[in-house]
Design brief:
The protein is of the alpha/beta class. Helices cover about 30% and strands about 20% of the residues. The radius of gyration is 24 Å and the shape is elongated. The relative contact order is 0.12.
Length: about 475
């Protein structure tokens, strides 16, 4: 896939970006100019260029995500039409006509194009489609952007989508290929030449550090659990800006443990490491961009399987902060390993902590599949919500209702890992996690169970992993140091 500026040779297809209420070279009703509506005008002969009309909606209401999804949908449409190249023809906006800057719109076109062309072909045979579609931009269409500025934006966008692709690839991967030990190996390989510090806690080190959640959850698998600690420091002083810790839940296959999941098809149990994949994708973006930040990733990796050594319902886990937890349901495993990571984050001197996890189906029942829930510190929440609206990785603030914590009381331990009620499961999960947050840390919890995948194909995306969270987390970390 090539993305170029003012490429000399002719392109197979011309893409026209058109807006509602504005004149176009084509006779089109405004209904065909709405956001993400695509219309083909085919050439009468093989020598004539085909034209794809991309509706952008009203220019005054344009957002980066609208542009990104339109670009992705256009790329996927050309892919299905077996096109190999296209040129974008954009009419420059009148001063003040667009709510979006020229630079932001250009970046969204580049990111969207690469996002839309994503395919996971690793395990495909005869159905694999290795074709791609190149896109050319005309510099004159982007008034106010020099060629150098466009090339800089393109390079940044490519790094961002590369990190998002890493996240998507990890989430889509099959369990016989990506188990806890293989996940560790992927991280080691990806960052082996990067300016990072990497340490993997496993085996006796988990015992010595009393990472009891990981040891309990991973006991049913032949692959040993691990805590990955990946640190990157792109600033001159440890005292410059906050120490941010990103925590990702990395359950590479969630069978539910002894509380076995049932269903006709539970293939998406392999996607229960979406939070871990998002954190790794974010780290990839920050490192590749040589970001001036200080950040540590903590990835808790395990399988949650049934087996002769698996933890049993009613078992008690003891954590080094003095809390004991009754495992009332072994399918509530994510919060048990996040607890380990939060306690470790406090030992590292974290100032701000974000944990992200495919934690509960309940959050999808509340918010659907396009928006994740977020709990915790109001300022971190506000910053992340703002970034998510711009990135298309949306969040909705959810409450921590203290009264619901009574559902987590155990008859014979300090806490139980799931509530006694079937209601408000996402909230009680957040309340459980809060018990392991040190007073010295500002903390938020993101439940992204609904947003980790598209269950069917959409115009702008293949079915499967969305890559949710990689750009969201990377942009948040950068913002903290930009404004520090």
């Amino acid at each position: 896939m090539k993305i170029t500026i003012d490429e000399a040779h002719s392109m197979e297809t011309s893409i026209y970006a058109v807006y509602e209420g504005e004149e176009t070279p084509f006779r089109l009703k405004d209904s065909r100019k709405k956001s993400q509506v695509l219309t083909w005008f085919y050439g009468r002969t093989n020598d004539e260029t085909d034209d794809l009309i991309a509706g952008m909606g009203q220019q005054s209401n344009l957002t980066s995500e609208q542009v990104r999804r339109t670009s992705a949908a256009a790329a996927r449409t050309l892919l299905k039409e077996n096109k190999s190249s296209a040129v974008l023809i954009r009419t420059a906006a009148a001063p003040g006509a667009s709510s979006l800057s020229v630079a932001d719109e250009f970046q969204a076109w580049v990111e969207g194009w690469m996002y839309g062309l994503y395919q996971f072909n690793k395990h495909r045979g005869v159905t694999a489609n290795v074709q791609t579609v190149s896109l050319n931009f005309r510099q004159d269409d982007w008034q106010g952007l020099s060629r150098e500025a466009m090339e800089t934006i393109m390079e940044s966008a490519k790094k961002r989508i590369k990190g998002t692709k890493l996240t998507r690839d990890l989430v889509n991967e099959s369990p016989e290929t990506l188990n806890p030990e293989a996940f560790v190996a992927v991280v080691e390989e990806r960052f082996k030449k990067a300016p990072v510090q990497l340490h993997v806690y496993r085996g006796q080190e988990l015992v010595d550090r009393q990472m009891s959640g990981l040891l309990a959850v991973g006991a049913g698998s032949k692959y040993e659990p691990a805590m990955i600690e990946l640190s990157y420091n792109g600033i001159d002083s440890d005292n410059e800006g906050p120490h941010i810790v990103l925590i990702g839940k990395g359950v590479t296959f969630d069978m539910g443990g002894m509380n076995v999941k049932i269903g006709r098809d539970i293939s998406d149990a392999r996607m229960d490491m979406g939070g871990a994949a998002a954190v790794i994708g974010a780290m990839d973006i920050l490192v590749s961009q040589k970001a001036k930040v200080r950040v540590t990733a903590l990835i808790a990796v395990a399988d949650n399987l049934s087996g002769p050594d698996a933890i049993l319902p009613s078992s008690v886990i003891h954590y080094p902060n003095g809390l004991s937890v009754q495992v009332a349901n072994t399918d509530g495993e994510g919060r048990l390993i996040i607890a380990d990571a939060l306690l470790h984050a406090a030992k590292l001197g974290a100032d701000k902590v974000i944990d992200i996890a495919t934690l509960t189906g309940n959050v999808g029942a509340a918010l659907g599949l396009e928006i994740a829930g977020i709990w915790g510190d109001q300022q971190i929440t506000s910053d992340l919500v703002e970034i998510g609206e711009r990135n298309g990785e949306r969040l909705w603030p959810m409450p921590l209702i203290d009264e619901y914590e009574s559902e987590l009381k155990s008859d014979y331990a300090d806490l139980r890992n799931v509530g006694t009620s079937t209601l408000a499961g996402a909230i009680t999960a957040a309340l459980f996690i809060r018990n392991f947050v040190a007073d010295s840390m500002k903390w938020v919890h993101i439940d992204m169970a609904g947003t980790v995948q598209y269950k069917r194909e959409f115009p702008h995306s293949a079915a499967g992993a969305t890559g949710y969270g990689a750009r969201l987390l990377a942009d948040y970390v950068e913002k903290q140091f930009h404004h520090a």
